[in-house]
Design brief:
Bound molecules: zinc ion
Helix content: 40-55%
Number of strands: 0
Order of helices and strands: HHH
Distance between the termini: 25 Å
Largest sheet: none
Shape: globular
Number of helices: 3
Structural class: mainly alpha
Length: 115
Amino acid sequence: MAEDETIRAFARKLWNGQRSNDQTFATQVDGYLETIPVELQGMPYCRVCESVLCGVCGRCHEDTKQFVFIGPRCPVAVPNTERPGCLAWSYAYQFLSQARRTSDLTDRKHKEESE
Ligand SMILES: [Zn+2]
Ligand SMILES: [Zn+2]
């Protein structure tokens, strides 16, 4: 879908602006940016804090929160050190959801303007 590609491209741009010098990590994030569904709907989430669960281990989710450094820690959260891909996945997820939100806002604005 064309819209999905636009969002994915925007997510890549956001990520490139904050790209890590750690090559291994950066390559992992690149990979996840291509595979996480842009729709972000129907993804498994934590029933307690409603954060999306990590796509690598399916358990950790401290880093998928919209505001990583704000808010209470989830009481059932699992540290994201279990597998090497966890943090990279969470990064990719963050950039995609940020791109998605930005695109939703733009869509709404266009709609309001054309009505
Ligand atoms: Zn949780
Ligand atoms: Zn994980």
